[in-house]
Amino acid sequence: MLEQLVQPIHSTRYSLASAGSFRYVVANLAVHSEQSVVLNPKWRIAESDREREAEDSGIMPKMSTQEASHRLRIGQLLDLSIQDAQPRKDRELRWLSLAQAIQPLIKPGELPNLSNKNVNDLFPIRIGNYAIFRTSKRTYVGQVLDLYKKGSSGRYGSVDQAGSASSLQAISVRVHLTCGMDTLIDGDDDEPSTPIFSSVYGSYHLHTYAPIDSLLYQLGPCVFTPLGTRGTLKVQMTLNPAAELHWISLTRKAVEQSLPKLLIRIRRL
Questions:
Q1: CA pair distance 125, 163, nearest whole angstrom
Q2: Average pLDDT rounded to a whole number, residues 23-36
Q3: Residues 50-86: pLDDT tens digits?
Q4: Cα gap 256→262, rounded to integer Å
Q5: CB-based contacts of 104: which residues, under 8 Å, 6+ apart?
Q6: Is the separation of the CB atoms in 139 and 256 below 8 Å?
Q7: Cα separation of 83 and 248, whole Å?
Q8: Predicted structure pTM score
């Protein structure tokens, strides 16, 4: 009986009569919530009462603390300039001062968007992208495996991408070290050459949990070209020309001396 009353709806791409198509459409439904910012009606009545009282007595009565707080909150929500002016974190301010110190040491165009570590809304850092990281002993290239963000409750959660490095707490990466040599802080070459990278030591893959302060610059996806393989494993790789320019700029001796040494302290439980 129900099949006689309900007729299948056909479209140019999908048919709701098919169970598989119906599940596909339902899976792609999204719920969008909207927020209406309006003055509470009871405060509108209170405002009218104050105006009538002011006409009778000639003195405008003061509004209550609750009404003043409510009106202030509405003004903050409607003022776009207040929403955009978010307070900067201390680590973000430290990096901005470092970026200003590095700019005179590099050539124009070598490190675009250095002030935000090349991470923004147009070029967010994503799982699978590559970036340059730095510890107290070496500089390396890491492939992003996971991004960790701290919520308002104090708990950490995983996100697929982020439009700001300052919004993250840590990054899980696959480490690509230089082969035959480590790019140490106290290097001897003023103008380093592009090394060969590998994420394998013997038969082991190299991974680490990198604090967000160790992130120097995002390179983007697909920055390596394989040179040698072991079966299906890419053992040796080199950077493409664009990523190579960023690597050379950040591993130059004068630039490395301007960067602080990141010390990771481990506390025993």
A1: 7
A2: 48
A3: 888 877 877 778 888 888 887 877 777 766 555 555 5
A4: 12
A5: none
A6: yes
A7: 38
A8: 0.61
